[in-house]
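Predicting holo structure, zinc ion bound.
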Amino acid sequence: MAKHTHRGTCQICGALQAVNAKTGLLAAHGYTVPAHWHQRTASCFGARKLPFQVSRDVIPALMDSLRQQSAHLRAAAEDMRANGTTFEVELRWPSRASIRKTEAGFELIRASLTSFRPATTQPLDAFLAQQSPNQSAEERAERARGMYAEAVASAIHRLESDAASCLAELPSWQARYDGWKPAPLIEAAP
Ligand SMILES: [Zn+2]
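Done. Tokens:
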């Protein structure tokens, strides 16, 4: 750990961090402002940057990043709406016991947005065949289509909601930027 004589506030997460006496930059630290930011990183956006007492220069970069992230999420939602079927579905039985007990003894599809792959209702059909062996192939296909459409709609909703959350953060960042005033660094305890 490098020696430091002062501490400063991170422009982004607001945490107090050691200031490198030579470079004037904050120490590396983890990402601690989850808010609604979709993309989580191990490192704070304000790590190894100037402290808020000295500069507000990281805030516009973060705002740009939020706008980009929002556009990216919106594009992904539009793509999913147009092409419909491009994500992996994961099917889970709750437990063997509850399969016997409940009529609809399965948990609904969980869509994984991180691993995209051309989807097909075929796995659902196999799943439903196992679940309701007496159903006709047509009935199963109909149910599989319904479940799939529901999962796609829910995935689109999630993308659009995350996109909106990114934009919703902008005013508070703008306010932090506008309200900035230079201030002295905090002296570290000897
Ligand atoms: Zn930080």
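Confidence is low (pLDDT under 50) at residues 33-39, 86-119.
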